[in-house]
Design goal:
2 domains, 6 helices, mainly alpha, 175 residues, 7% strand, globular
């Protein structure tokens, strides 16, 4: 069993009082959402990494290639921001992708200190071979869920994400 498969700790009991029974069989936790999202993300990443290993590519390399396929010509800083990682974390990944001729750097004409990253034709063809891995992971994750449940889940996930991003933007404006 992988470490992320451990269950959440049981709720703490209040001394001398019984915990209130939930109104229905569906229990909505008042905490643990971040833990559960993190656990799901790790499970996704592990499954994706297992499938990508057959193509000799890491999940991080896949994410970089996919991001460039969606928006070619980004700088390393812009790419790192889109992926939500530190610029330094992209350095080794991009060096590997460049060595494999999947990505090329082109000096920025307006600011020579910057380089723009482009997906090469061989990088695009390689990426096309990887998409079925991502589709498979999504298919596995969706097993046993109805279309209606998926629609609600995605709506809830987008709402939570926007709430958190909006809160973060507000905090930056205040501070």
């Amino acid at each position: 069993m992988d470490g992320f498969e451990k269950t959440l700790p049981a709720p703490r009991k209040t001394a001398g009082r019984r915990a209130a029974k939930p109104a229905s069989s569906a229990v909505v936790p008042d905490r643990g959402i971040g833990n559960r999202l993190g656990r799901a993300e790790r499970a996704f990443r592990y499954k994706l990494q297992d499938l990508l290993a057959a193509h000799d590519v890491t999940a991080s390399q896949w994410l970089h290639l996919r991001a460039l396929s969606e928006e070619d010509g980004l700088t390393q800083t812009e790419l790192s921001q889109r992926l939500g990682i530190e610029k330094a974390s992209s350095t080794a990944v991009l060096a590997t992708l460049e060595a494999r001729k999947f990505v090329r750097r082109v000096r920025n004409v307006s600011d020579r200190r910057k380089a723009n990253l482009f997906l090469t034709d061989s990088g695009a063809m390689f990426l096309a071979q990887l998409f079925p891995c991502a589709v498979t992971v999504n298919d596995v994750a969706k097993r046993g869920l109805s279309q209606a449940e998926l629609v609600v889940f995605l709506h809830v996930l987008e709402t939570m994400t926007e709430n958190l991003l909006s809160s973060r933007r507000t905090n930056r404006q205040i501070g």
